[in-house]
Amino acid sequence: MNPAWQRRGRLPLDTTRADWASTHAALPVVEPLGHNQFGLYLSLRDRDGRARIGRTVLTMGDRPTLAPLDPEPVVDLGALGAFDDSGVTTSCLVTVGRDRFLYYTGWSRGVTVPFYLAAGVVISENGGPFERWSPAPLLERNPIDPFLTASPFVLIGHGRWRMWYVSASEWRHTDSGPRHYYHIKYAESADGLAWHRAGHVAVDYATDEEHAFARPWVVHDDDRYRMWFAVRGDRYHIGFAESSDGATWTCRDEMGLTAGEDDWESEMVAYPCVFEWNRRRYMLYNGNDYGRTGVGLVVER
Question: Rounded CA gap, 229 and 215, in Å?
């Protein structure tokens, strides 16, 4: 039972025009287009498990639908040896005039640990195609974030850019192999590109079982900030927190989302994307196996 949300079901996606997209449709990000439509950016994997960012169109109505996936990816893999040569996954979209900043997570394969992650950004100038701002990460590893950065979510307000992002605090050896531990930190910027990171933890582990947070989604309402995020012990569910200033947060589990009864989301739910349509708040999310079973939709009660 999820008292905060009413389920609207899974949204089928036709990927037949995109031969690069074999599995998954993870980490949804919406872009308002008008006329009840939203551009929808998703992370889809090829046959080797490498994610690229694709685009479809979500049409809202009595029965929301997704258009067929565009044939070509919006963001492709990075250059060989770059921080994103093994995958790029969606995080958030910020529009400034006619320019758009699509923040993402870059993946590369590890040796002592399974993978390395780093936050990146591509920019669409004056409505043009997205181009990498740099072949290097936006948030590189440093003494504040020595292991990895990922899943940046950015809002602009009061003359500053504000970011909530995932940062690893450690890797641990376990019987099943290395286990990552990452939580949500906070940073600020004057331009969305050069970020000041002071190490402030916005949302931390609540129990010994929790070890991973994923893709925060922040909304600034009139009275407070609200954040939805994926968090896991054994399996992911969607958590929720509130803040008066965007820096200090209080978690309220009853406003999140847990696994559902349908087979496609019976094991886990993750990667919230919150938006408004027709004066109501909706959330797109993923189900089992980190988005392999597609995208679902819920509406706030």
Answer: 6
Q: How many CB atoms lie within 10 A of CB 144?
A: 15
**Closest to 300 in 3D by CA, of 283, 277, 278:** 283
pTM of the model: 0.96
What percent of the chain lies above the pLDDT cut of 90? 95
Closest to 51 in 3D by CA, of 120, 123, 127:
120
Angle, CA of 131, 135 and 139, to the nearest 5°? 105
> Do residues 246 and 203 make contact, with C-beta atoms less than 8 angstroms apart?
no
The edge-to-edge listing of strands for the beta sheet with 51-59 is 23-34, 37-45, 51-59, 65-66
Amino acid at 223: D
pLDDT tens per residue across span 157-177? 988 999 999 999 999 999 999
Mean pLDDT value across residues 269-274: 98
Residue 1 pLDDT level (bands cut at 50, 70, 90)? low
Read off the amino acid at residue 114: P
d(CA 138, CA 118): 8
Percent of the chain with pLDDT over 70: 99
Would you list the DSSP string of 212-260?
EEEEEEEEE-SS-EEEEEEEESSSEEEEEEEESSSSS-EE-GGGSB---
In 3-state terms, what secondary structure has residue 106? strand
Cα separation, 11 vs 16, whole angstroms:
16
End-to-end CA, the chain: 12
Cα 296 from Cα 284, distance rounded (Å): 6
